[in-house]
């Protein structure tokens, strides 16, 4: 079994532990992105570049099977709603 498919079971689906890890990675990246949106300094700007690059990467797309750009838009829309409230 090659490394790319080593965390998939016979049906081709990820094991529940791997899914939980992927979800935790994405959740943390979203939290980091939200925190960076609220910062107005160099560190916040650097973190925004990092998180945007992650969400837009081929790695993110392969890992999750979803559009990172779409998720970024949803996160930023939620941040705007929260800031207005």
Give a short synopsis of this structure.
By secondary structure, this protein is mainly alpha-helical. Helix content is 72%, strand content 0%.
Keywords:
single chain; 85 residues; 4 helices; disordered N terminus
Task: Walk me through what this model shows.
Helices cover 72% and strands 0% of the residues. By secondary structure, the chain is an all-alpha fold. It has one domain (10-84). The N and C termini lie far apart (51 Å).
Could you give the distance between the termini? Answer: 51 Å
Q: What is the mean predicted local confidence, pLDDT?
A: 85
Q: How helical, in percent, are the residues? A: over 70%
Order of helices and strands: HHHH
Oligomeric state of the chains in view:
single chain
Task: Give a topology summary.
Layout: H1 16-38, H2 42-55, H3 58-64, H4 68-84
């Amino acid at each position: 079994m090659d490394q790319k498919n080593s965390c998939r079971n016979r049906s081709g689906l990820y094991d529940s532990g791997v899914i939980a890890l992927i979800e935790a990675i994405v959740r943390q990246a979203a939290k980091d992105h939200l925190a960076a949106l609220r910062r107005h300094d160099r560190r916040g700007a650097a973190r925004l570049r990092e998180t945007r690059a992650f969400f837009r990467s081929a790695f993110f797309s392969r890992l999750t099977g979803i559009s990172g750009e779409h998720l970024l838009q949803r996160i930023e829309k939620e941040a705007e709603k929260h800031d207005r409230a």
